[in-house]
Amino acid sequence: MIYNSDKRNNRFSNISEVLSSIIPVLKSKYFYISVLAVISGAALNIASQTYLHNYMSEGKTLPMLSDLILDNLPVINVSIFYDIFCLVPIFLVFVYFFHKKDCNRIPVFLLMSGIFYIIRGIFIVLTPFGNPPLFNGSDPLFHGFANYELGVYPSGHVGNVFLMYLLVKNRGYKLLILSCLIIVTVALFLAHGHYSIDILSGLFFSYAIKSFGEKHLSMFDLGCTNES
């Protein structure tokens, strides 16, 4: 009985600690600015891809490119892997926030992700390319987004997963997210879901955004620096 009581007390204590760490975040203006950045990034990507979809619906075409790697790889439909494993890191990041009581860093994660998608939304219409030759689209599980499988540079799958890897400080979570990044990258190559330049540019864009954020947007990191 004493043991069960201690377990309950520990559980309530953990919940209380999580709540006490999240409440200051919800009171911060930086949290709401970062949420606005995410919404803006998502809206801009949808608007850009809708524009490309309407462009092609008028009978126009987007140019396809040759690719040194893709031209020498057979097409293997493993799109479900890159679609699922680009979502897993998002789940892992939220677990990380509460497990490591690092909720004070939620705004900086949201802001960096929002900036990435804002930039991507601009770039995919600046110089629009068609999807790689022989690309068959997403797995049926995700095929409801078929109209938005346009706009390839840079890769949102790779870019956002790598950004999560860069921002997470705990080694265990970094390894899990790195595993997801490897699966997403390999699956994109095998499915011909992105050109090589899209995948590589996703890595460089994320690194540049993270470096810029550390230098100029440190106020969005509200002070929690757990690294255990």
In what range is the share of β-strand residues? under 5%
* Helical stretch tally: 8
Main sheet overview: none
- Order of helical and strand elements: HHHHHHHH
Describe this protein's structure.
The radius of gyration is 20 Å and the shape is globular. Helix 4 (88-99) runs antiparallel to helix 7 (171-191), helix 5 (106-126) crosses helix 8 (196-216) and helix 6 (156-167) packs antiparallel against helix 7. It has 228 residues and is mainly alpha-helical. It has 8 helices and no strands. It has one domain.
Q: What is the element layout, followed by pairings?
A:
Elements: H1 2-26, H2 29-57, H3 79-85, H4 88-99, H5 106-126, H6 156-167, H7 171-191, H8 196-216
Helix pairs in contact: 2-5, 3-7, 4-7, 5-6, 5-8, 6-7, 6-8
Short description:
By secondary structure, this protein is mainly α.
List its salient traits.
8 helices; mainly alpha; 228 residues
